[in-house]
Amino acid sequence: MNIAKVKLLGHASILIEVDNKRILTDPWYFGTAFNDGWELLPKPNLEDIKSDIKNVDIIWISHEHPDHLHFPTLKWIAEFVQNDVEIYFQKNNSSKVFEALKKLGYKKFVSMPHLAKISITPNVNIACYAHRQLDSSLAVFIKDKFWLLNINDTELNQHDISIIRKKFGIPTALYNQFSIAGSDGIENHLKFTAASTLKKMREHHESLSAKVSIPFASFIRFARVDNKYMNDHVNTVFDVKNHFKENNLQVILQAFGGEYLIWNNISEVPSNWFEIDAEGEKFFKDKIEPKEDNEYQHKIVIKDEMIKVIEDRIKSWKKVTNQLVWKILKLDAVFFKVTDWDNEIWKVDFDKNLFSKASNVDEFDISISSQPLWQAFKMPFGIQTLGVSGRYKFSEKNYSVPKKWKKIRILSSLYNA
Question: 262 has which bridge partners?
Fold first, then answer.
């Protein structure tokens, strides 16, 4: 008789079944994320998923990024899921996630304190490892044995891993992100970032002494004309498999909507790992799709609207930022080459609170089209979204992220804190 089983539904979403409890994680099954910069690849089968998840008991959300907390998907789920489903989310200093989900029809919510085990059946506990007030990992315990750790995007360092080992022990299975999830604006860095992500996945496996890892949470393509270059640098599940094989570590490729991985002994690899891995290999070989052209066209933002949005944002930043901090930051002007404004160069002057066309200037800091520029300054988390979407590039003169842009990211983060 199986003790526990897991099905991969899509991207970062798995369905865990243990002791007659069904736990769904991070559902995102259609649509886009990060200002239309990300699209699911492969795309899940909605009819199959609806059948799989209609009786789930718990929906766990790891963090607030829209590829994990995807409101259109959660609204769709609310239309057919059982009424007593519970939403689990890391405990923090805000209730905004729960308040937003109440509006979609969800009624039961559980805040998960950092490192605290929560009993969901007499034999099963779950716990949250909260990371830097943003990401979180899900730990699942069966009869006090640490069985599974859903790491997803959590950038665990050696200190985090030491805490997890000391507090929880050694997990049998890891579900982990395996590819790039954004850009710092310098294309030459992407190859290193992809290699570092593979290395980090392997280090998690080795440092936690796991028996098996399953790659997930990177099943996307960069979906716009201005970021599709990033698709040339992504890791595939086959890159993961080769990397783990070279290091004598076990990884299993799991197909979307395929058969469950089944554990008859939670201290060992799944009893059906060989069959599931073969199914996964076939699925991903068959599902490698050609790069598509841009599907998400935005209108060119008119200049008067852009001027108002950027100048209003600077006013808001100044208003809430300590004057001493503002002086210390000493924000230099930033020059944008706006590609759909005939490559005109426009200047943001933070001292004068102006966004204007630059005169007699050929050099620029950032190349970007008008819509992601507008979104970066219009939305509270727009600067962060720009980085994750990768819909911009620094000029070739920059071999590292310019200090002036780092200061803007700091300012934006302070504003959103």
Answer: 5
Phi, psi of 277 (to 5 degrees): -65, -40
**pTM for the full predicted model:** 0.95
Structure tokens at 60: 């766990």
What is the mean predicted confidence (pLDDT) over 100-125?
97
Amino acid at 238: F
Judge contact between 7 and 258, C-beta under 8 A: yes
Integer Rg of the chain from CA: 22
C-alpha to C-alpha distance for 198 and 293, rounded to whole angstroms: 28
Report the share of the chain in percent with pLDDT over 70: 97
**Res. 11: pLDDT tops 60:** yes
13: closest CA among 33, 34, 28, 2? 28
